[in-house]
Specification:
Helix content is 75%, strand content 0%. It is an all-alpha fold. It holds the Pfam family Sigma70_r2.
């Protein structure tokens, strides 16, 4: 062990506990305090000329470095965006597999309808159009829209039953 290492060890023994308490008071986080003290002592090791100063000067330098590290951490974007937690929150996400498969099944069954029936069923159930609106859109009387809707739904039910869907 060299003289610098012994000097650093002596600085650690003399100041690490006080630095730790200081940083805990500033951050309120024991883990962060350990990291800041470690980084402070690492910087002292990188600047051995600091360790050769008087005891008060070394202590002042260490506390200044620790304070600057705490301020940097508090200002960092990471601290502002990330929050630690003891447990990972559960995300309730519903399985949409059945809904997707059902929509494919209905879309395939709709292809089995005649174009006139399909247009009225899609207009009423997917686009939310009224009988009067559908009559105007397609240029047919409202009674014809009702009839196509009735027979279109009946044909859709049969197409779905052929695909194995039961009512």
């Amino acid at each position: 062990m060299g003289a610098e290492d012994e000097l650093l060890e002596a600085v650690h023994d003399s100041h690490a506990d006080a630095l730790y308490r200081y940083v805990v008071r500033r951050t309120g986080d024991e883990e962060e305090a350990r990291d800041v003290v470690q980084e402070t002592l690492l910087r002292a090791w990188r600047h051995p000329e600091v360790l050769e100063r008087s005891e008060e000067s070394v202590r002042s330098w260490l506390f200044t470095v620790a304070r600057n590290l705490v301020v940097d951490h508090l200002r960092s974007a990471r601290r502002n965006r990330e929050h630690s937690t003891a447990s990972v929150p559960d995300r309730q996400e519903h399985d949409r597999t059945h809904a997707v498969l059902d929509s494919w099944l209905v879309a395939d069954a709709l292809l089995a309808l005649s174009p006139d029936h399909r247009a009225v069923v899609v207009g009423a159930y997917y686009r939310g159009r009224s009988v009067a609106e559908l009559a105007t859109e397609h240029g047919i009387p409202p009674g014809t829209v009702k009839s196509r809707l009735h027979y279109g739904l009946r044909a859709l039910r049969l197409a779905l039953q052929e695909k194995g869907v039961t009512s």
